[in-house]
Amino acid sequence: MANLLEARGIEKHFGGVKAVNDVSISIEAGSIHAVIGPNGAGKTTFFNTLSGFYFPDAGTVTFDGHDVTKMINWKRIELGMSRTFQTPSIFPELSVYDNLLIGTQSQAKMAFRLAPPSATARNAMNARIDELLHFVNLTAFKDRPVAELSHGSQRLCEIAMSLAMQPKLVLLDEPMAGLAEAETERIVGVIRDLHDRLGLTVVFVEHNMRVVLGLAHRITVLDRGAMLAEGTPAEISANSVVREAYLGKEVIDHV
Amino acid sequence: MEQIAPQLFNGLILGAFYAIVAIGLSLIMNLTGTINMAHGAFLTLAGYLAFTLVSHGTSFWVALILAPLMTVAVGILVERTMIRPLYGRLPIYGLLLTFGLSLIAEEVFHLTWGANGVPFQPPAILAGTVPLGFMQFPAYRLFIAFVLIIAISALVYFLRRTKFGLQLRAAVQDSEMIAALGTNTQVLYMVNFGLGIFLAGVAGVLAAGMLGLNPTTGNALLLPAFVAVIIGGMGSLLGSIVGGLLIGVVFSMVTLYFPAFNEVSIYILMALVLMIRPRGLFGEEGLFG
Amino acid sequence: MIASNRGVVVSCLLLVVFAALPFVNIGLEISTITEVFLIGIAAMSVNLLVGYTGINAFGNAAFFGLGAYGALLSIKYFHTDFVLSIVAGVALAFLGGVVLGPFLLRRRGIYFSLLTIALGQVFYFIAYRFTDVTGGEDGMTVIRPLVGFLNYKVDDHAFYYVSLAALALALGTFWIVVRSPFGKTLQAIRQNELRVRYLGLNTDRFIFVALIVSATLAGLGGTLFGLLLSNVSPLLLDWHQSGDFVLMTVIGGAGTIWGPMIGALIFVIGKDVLSSVTPLWQIYIGALFIACVLGFPKGILGSIFAAFEARRVVPPAPSSAAQAVVVEPHG
Which residue from B minimizes the CA distance to C114? Predict the structure, then answer.
């Protein structure tokens, strides 16, 4: 299977600090790939270079055959990438519906219009928004101000927003951070659905080892900006270097 | 052309003024995101305070230190009471507030010291010229250059070599992190502001003897200082220095050949820099540029 | 604050009331009210940027002044009639927006504000220095031209209705923009520009158009203002004037449609009254800036709307455990 996203030799430094040091990753189309590592490992910085939040100082990023290393972020989204952030990046003053509307308009190439959309177009967009809401189970909150939602629901709203662009690849930055058990399970379910039901490729950054081992097809482990290991869940949990650096010498149960 | 060398020298002195005002503005902007539209007013205040001190018998040398310190006291009062509530809010509020302050200040200066400005003579020892190599330099201007160089060097030393300076630089990068590490950011902001005002104050006292002292002296230096920050690169202190010097020189040289265009010329320079290098000479890459 | 249908109705009613004003004695001169309308339009132009798009524009006086200079220069050198002079002024302001736009797009936040101040001043200095063309510090005075094809002299009364029409035009532009997909995206940009980009949109394009619309609106206000006074001076272009416009927007309520007009009313009338009562009026204006920012940042309309929002009974969001199950929507 072809690699949808490929990064080679990515480096990023800030001042004197090398946040990301020669990291490479290959994401197969249709797979779920996790990027893990202890705090400060450079996971989010690496994500940022993949998604165009900043450009790497060295290395290349190829997405769907295109060289996107220095491509501006909004163009990457047009190509089919999408991204969520550690703190849900949503529109805090709008309702859930309006949050999704902005992206839906964009996907329908209607965002730059002064004229109101035709009834047909509006119905199509509303149908699309309903679909997205249904997928993340937020239909009941459609007209609620998004600021009133729980943290986990806001995360789901953000995932729905990133789906509005009909992406091929979804980058999720710590989607489960700060969530209670029940909400974590919801997100895990949604990630599985992204793969199983929508056929999307998912790359996510995460701390929760148990979740990662149960969910990901492949795992990349970073530590202090450098690659520690890369492989299947079985390989990673058996890897002694990883265990020492990240897990301590505990025994890990697969889910 | 014997006019070029002295004009160049004057340009550098003028540029040094712009640089010092620009650095003060930059310090405040970079750390707290506040554009201090009242910066010029603080400068003028220091000049007037020095004038009053000297008129009442204080020596110029004492006034040179005392007036800026008094101005810093005013500045810190303003910062604690009016600017602090605005940290973290939209930049527009800080702009409006400091703008309002400058309006009040201008009127207060008008009331207290008159509309037409006051004469401020530097001490006799600094009058006259000093022969240095191929030309005669006005002693007062040499003195100004000397003081400004010392001030800037002291600032650089402070920022690079002291613990406090290190905290300041770190806070510009990441205020949240620094607060989490236990630094008192409120004190940091206050000292930072005071530093900027002190520099403006010193410039104000020196400028009074060279550019004259009236209610709008400071404001006349403010706008070119903005341009200096833009040209030098927003976010960079070195840029403010270089930008200021550059503008001073350009202004002086253009005054020599096309006097009517001297003000416009620095804006043209700014437009050129923005076209070729939008982030300014030493600016950082923005997220959107 | 997305414009509502009810708001449209209220606005139309207000416009009708304004149309009837010249026939009622409310203690204000017609030309003063006209001034308020025109300054209000300029404040509305700032509101589009500050209140809706979330960009801190502190240089709109440049476009206001360009409008005035455009009209009066065209009268002085091309002897244009009333209508063509308006066209000339608005066109010059529009051009100003197009030319400055690309420079302004480079930055956001306070650095953007800095750019608007500095770039706005370019026009001030041009007007100040090109004395032969623009009259320099003293500005220009012209005789208000007739409406060409009708040979009609526009007196104070007629000018009031011209300005009212301009206000209606400005309001109409606002309604259309704010309610359109474009306008909704602008408001999204204000709340979270990064997310808009991560929804595949080039926010620079949106901001550029907002800048141009704002420049043109400010130019409309400025053009008529110059024609009203039959006079223009570089002070109209100065950043102090820009600061006044921003203050009006904030006092009245940034992000509301009528806020800037209310702010303009307070400011224009207030300044008139203050300056006739005390020579220290500048201190009071400065204090107004400070008081508004520290005590009243939402502005008049903004505070009123916020109070209504708070009063609406909102059912509390269900707990997270409950959210794990699909909840029937309740009315």
Answer: B226
